[in-house]
Amino acid sequence: MTDRYARLNHGYDSSLDCGSYISIKDKPEECLLGSADAQDAAAYANLVSNCFTFLMASLLGAMSDEYGRRDILISGLFLSCTSTVCLVLMQMRPMMSPNWYYIASASSGLISWFPICLSSLSDVLSPKWRAAGFGLFLASFSVGIALSPIIAIFFNHFHVSVVSLGMLILALSVVFFFFPETLPPAAAEEAKQTRIRRDQQEQQQQRATRCFGSNILYTLKRPIRELSILNRNTFFRLLALLAFFSGMVAQADQSLLLYYLEDRLAFNDKDVAKMFVLIGVLGILVQGILIKPFIQFIGEKHVIVMAFIIGSLVNVLYGIASEKWMIFAALPLGSFVGMSFPTISAIKSNNVKQNEQGRIQGALSSVQALASGAGPMALRVIFRFTQDTVPGAMWLFAAFLYLIATGFALTLPSDKANSTTPWLCKRRRRDGYDEVDDDGQQRSVEEALLC
Fold first, then answer.
1. First-last CA distance in the chain
2. Helices (H) and strands (E) in the chain, counts
3. Residue (of 442, 429, 439, 437) closest to 413 by Cα position
4. How many other C-beta atoms can be found within 10 angstroms of the C-beta atom of residue 415?
5. What is the C-alpha R_g of the chain?
6. By the 8 A CB rule, do 355 and 198 touch?
């Protein structure tokens, strides 16, 4: 993307690719400007995509509770293929603007398939296995990250794009032909009846203050109504804050770090390949293997606290890094940050009924999407003002956001956040665990004894 922007927007006409320069001092001004354009485009695409997800994820999650997961999942996967199609076309047409790729990438936020996958897993996993199950699901992404550099060794950029598109089409075909519907019919019917009762209550309230266009406003406000589940009690509000602050940093790390390393530390294709292999292998180890024993012995709450503290440290290392080895030293620590997302997802899943799995996953994905759009933009603004004085200041700001998230994580009530720690299981068995939640709902003893 950097090379294409440099050629189209800034007149770069050398036969060398912008990525072939080893040192930032050797890079032409056109390549630096092209890199800035690519970073801005990526940040804007993330913002638009996450705004779409913020508006749609909660609504689609609630719809999946009534109509099933499968059709929404297929639609989301189909939409996610469009950006890779644009990437292939770009390399076939030298004058094609990269903006098409970023427009397609942004549109994929309209139907986010990721929370639908988590909802499907929640349908078939018991509460004590959900964090580990979500971690194993995310570990599959790490497998792809670890294997992708191997593909790059044997193929050029165009063929890698074609192979990527083929794999996406294969994944879509597998889901279309083999993926079963996981939503139980009884849960679907209960979700539908609950939504009808809620709609009838709100429509009765509207009749008292009926005005022109009230039906249209009622329909348009449905995504916001589905988000209201996050305001159910203090515990859900804390989870929303965790999703917001961690989402800001996680998306910024994913979308901006590579550009930053290429510009400031002269990362080349080999360095990037090594980085992806390391991230992938460690992600498989942490999310696929280590997350379950960590949760079993210290509980979900302290896993999140640990992940956020490590995340803060890793971003400080990014900010002060002056050599490549410092980045490679930070990456193993960064893999432990990956335990936070599946753990938060499991906690929210464990604290709602079966007919609300899609709604809660979608609602918290909406909040995280908003944060994921704002995070890269905020860090880009900080970078613009500090790039000539303290280039790593944006990563120090990211570390501060993780510290804020750590503070909120420490306030999570252990009896709601943790599921299988030995000391909590003993207390639940002893006391019968018949406490009442903030929303007035009593927890069942059966749920409490899933240790």
1. 50
2. 20, 0
3. 437
4. 16
5. 23
6. no
The first and second tokens of residue 294, run together, are 């960590």
DSSP string, 337-376: GGGHHHHHHHHHHHTS-GGGHHHHHHHHHHHHHHHHHHHH
Taking the C-alpha atoms of residue 6 and residue 217, their distance in angstroms, rounded to an integer, is: 46
Q: What angle do CA 310, 40, 84 make, to 5 degrees?
A: 85
Rounded alpha-carbon distances, angstroms, from residue 238 to 190, 230, 232, 301, 312: 27, 9, 11, 12, 19
Strand partners, 245: none
Q: Does residue 361 contact residue 119 with C-beta atoms inside 8 Å?
A: yes
CB-CB neighbours of 65 under 10 Å: 29
Give backbone dihedrals phi and psi of 95, rounded to 5 degrees, phi first.
-100, 5
pLDDT tens by residue, the chain, 451 residues: 888 888 888 888 888 887 777 666 778 888 878 888 887 888 788 778 878 888 888 889 988 999 999 999 999 999 989 999 999 998 888 888 889 999 999 998 899 888 999 999 999 988 888 888 898 888 887 787 777 777 777 777 788 889 889 989 999 999 999 999 999 999 889 988 888 888 777 767 666 555 555 555 656 677 777 888 888 888 989 988 988 888 888 888 887 888 788 888 888 778 888 888 888 888 888 988 899 899 888 889 999 999 999 999 999 999 999 899 999 999 999 889 989 988 998 898 888 888 888 888 888 888 888 887 788 888 888 988 898 888 899 999 999 999 999 999 999 998 888 876 554 455 445 544 444 343 444 444 344 444 4
CB 57 within 8 A of CB 115: yes
Q: Is 368 exposed, middle or buried (0-12, 13-18, 19+ CB in 10 A)?
A: buried
Amino acid letter for position 121: L
What stretches of 11-126 show up as alpha helix (H) in DSSP? 29-67, 70-92, 99-107, 114-124
Question: How many CA atoms does the CB half-sphere of 331 hold within 13 Å?
Answer: 21
Q: From residue 361, how far is each of 59, 115, 119, 186, 259 by CA, in Å? A: 11, 6, 7, 19, 31
Provide the token pair at 352. Answer: 């709602």
Q: How far is CA 345 from CA 19, 124, 350, in A?
A: 38, 15, 9
Q: Assess contact for 350 and 122: CB atoms under 8 A.
A: no
